Amino acid sequence: MIRHHLAHGCSPSPESVIRKALHALDEQEAEAAQHEEACMETQKEAPQPSPLLQWLRDTSGPATDLEALRRRLARIPDSLSDAMDEERQDRF
After folding, report:
1. How wide is the angle at C-alpha 37 spanned by C-alphas 31 and 39, nearest 5°?
2. Which residues contact 57 (CB under 8 A, 6 or more apart)?
3. pLDDT tens column, 17-42
4. 2 CA to centre of own chain
5. 23 by DSSP, 3-state: which?
6. Entry pTM
7. Domains of the chain: which residue ranges?
8. What would the pLDDT profile of 67-78 be if each residue is shown by its tens digit?
9. How far apart are the first and last CA of the chain?
10. Distance (Å, rounded) from C-alpha 89 to C-alpha 92?
11. How many Cα atoms sit within 13 Å of 26 on the Cβ side?
């Protein structure tokens, strides 16, 4: 990089190339710090959930795993597919 800058007349000396590189690095680190700070602020100011979503969270009860849900659904009498077949036959 130093040779390239010197060959193309971008910098008068190797030291000036290094100074420019260090300056660019400082700017890049400052921008990264500002970006990180902005992300942290955004996370702090997360929007409130909609009233419907909040109501669902409040009234849904404890979380249930998939197996427990399957066991509860298995106790429901009749079959959904049978009910759908009956509905289809009623249409024709």
Report:
1. 105
2. 49
3. 888 888 888 888 888 888 888 877 76
4. 40
5. helix
6. 0.41
7. 2-44, 51-91
8. 887 787 777 777
9. 79
10. 5
11. 6
